[in-house]
Recover the amino acids of this structure.
């Protein structure tokens, strides 16, 4: 301990994690925007919590905002357009619990803040909002520049190995500052003390970026917070005997999926959206957004011609097949706008390749209708964290006040972003929560400033 204290520095606030949530909180605090709607950026060297260096951001890796730079295929889908009330259904079962957080710093507030930093935005027809440059570096750099200009001290290559909770007001040889409530140890033996600690260390997805889930064990061990077991989310789904290896890259703008119980085949969940065939698995928004609900052994039923049903298709077949010279593949492609190679695969699946529709029996028509509108698969697994865009699981929301993001049993401890048990759909919803939760923490942090 004595060796640690020789290298100890005190900061009013330490942010652990230089990703989307950490950088957003740092930028808002640095320019005095912790309080919603506060004025212009403060002069360089004077952050929202007083003279620098009162805020320290520690990043485990040697690079800031790595996953932010990857988001939206490098274009950075910041948030989504529309009414914030519609966002709640995009976060699974925990969506309603973050209502206060999202409403307090909604998508309009996120856009306003980035535009105030000089980042021009654009909204696509599908509602996704990006920087007009379509370059994630502009977003990352604006946050870093704002934080540094406002006096935030940023250190990279600082992986946390231990967090100690210090009784406030305790003055002893083991405490370098009487205002300190937390002491952090890093891999190089350096120690940092702070009154307030904001953890934005991310989840387990894309572990090569440093978001490897290592902080979960430290949080559980040192702070005794409940961790909902992390699993991959926004991830492709594997099925047994996947038949579309040769069709990689084919997509369906509107497909329907139904998950079924592995024992009873009873329907558990249904959804629709864009579907993508890869060389090994199913992907695309309708798969990714609902992968949080998928378990091994479940039945996965896919309707490639949604919203048409077996009965709709059968009625059309009976009406159009008589004396029709077209082959099955051609009729499917022309009637439902399906890719020809997929139609060939569908016909081959039921042993009806290169046959004229006029020669099909009633039973064969039904099999064909079932194949394109209720093709049945068995889930064999999910792609791992290496392909998952986000993490489902993390610090339980029951541990926090969701208005301030402060831990209920640890004064001065805040958590934001993917480290929490929240995962959103594709389309900017995960970054929206990262920014909204970071803003909530920043508002609370501005109200608690104590020097050493």
């Amino acid at each position: 301990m004595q060796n640690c204290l020789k290298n100890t520095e005190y900061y009013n606030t330490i942010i652990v994690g230089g990703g989307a949530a950490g950088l957003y909180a740092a930028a808002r605090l640095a320019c005095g925007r912790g309080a919603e709607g506060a004025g212009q950026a403060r002069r360089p060297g004077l952050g929202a919590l007083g003279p620098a260096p009162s805020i320290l951001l520690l990043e485990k890796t040697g690079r800031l905002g790595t996953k932010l730079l990857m988001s939206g295929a490098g274009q950075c889908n910041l948030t989504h357009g529309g009414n914030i009330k519609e966002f709640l259904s995009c976060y699974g079962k925990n969506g309603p619990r973050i209502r206060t957080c999202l409403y307090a710093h909604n998508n309009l507030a996120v856009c306003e803040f980035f535009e105030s930093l000089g980042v021009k935005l654009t909204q696509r027809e599908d509602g996704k909002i990006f920087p007009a440059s379509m370059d994630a570096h502009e977003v990352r750099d604006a946050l870093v520049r704002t934080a540094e200009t406002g006096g935030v001290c940023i250190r990279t290559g600082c992986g946390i190995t231990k967090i100690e909770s210090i009784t406030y007001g305790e003055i002893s040889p083991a405490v370098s500052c009487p205002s300190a409530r937390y002491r952090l140890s890093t891999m190089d033996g350096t120690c940092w003390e702070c009154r307030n600690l904001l953890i934005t260390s991310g989840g387990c997805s894309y572990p090569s970026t440093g978001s490897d889930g290592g902080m979960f064990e430290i949080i559980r061990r040192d702070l005794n917070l409940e961790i909902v077991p992390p699993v991959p989310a926004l991830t492709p789904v594997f099925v047994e005997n996947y038949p579309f290896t040769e069709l990689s890259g084919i997509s369906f703008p509107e497909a329907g999926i139904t998950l079924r119980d592995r024992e009873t085949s009873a329907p558990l969940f249904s959804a629709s959206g864009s579907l993508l065939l890869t060389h090994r698995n199913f992907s695309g928004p309708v798969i990714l957004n609902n992968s949080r609900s998928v378990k091994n052994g479940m039945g996965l039923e896919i309707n490639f011609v949604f919203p048409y049903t077996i009965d709709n298709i059968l009625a059309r077949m009976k009406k159009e097949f008589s004396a029709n010279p077209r082959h099955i593949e051609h009729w499917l492609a022309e009637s439902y706008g399906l890719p020809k190679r997929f139609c060939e695969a569908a016909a081959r699946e039921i042993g009806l390749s290169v046959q004229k529709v006029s020669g099909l029996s009633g039973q064969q028509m039904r099999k064909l209708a079932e194949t394109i509108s209720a093709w049945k698969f068995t889930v064999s697994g999910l792609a791992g964290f290496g392909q998952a865009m986000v993490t489902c699981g993390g610090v339980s929301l029951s541990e926090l006040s969701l208005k301030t993001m402060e831990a209920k049993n640890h004064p001065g401890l805040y958590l934001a972003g993917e480290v929490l048990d929240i995962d959103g759909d594709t389309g900017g919803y995960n970054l929206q929560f990262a920014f909204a939760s970071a803003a909530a923490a920043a508002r609370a942090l501005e109200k608690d400033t104590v020097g050493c």
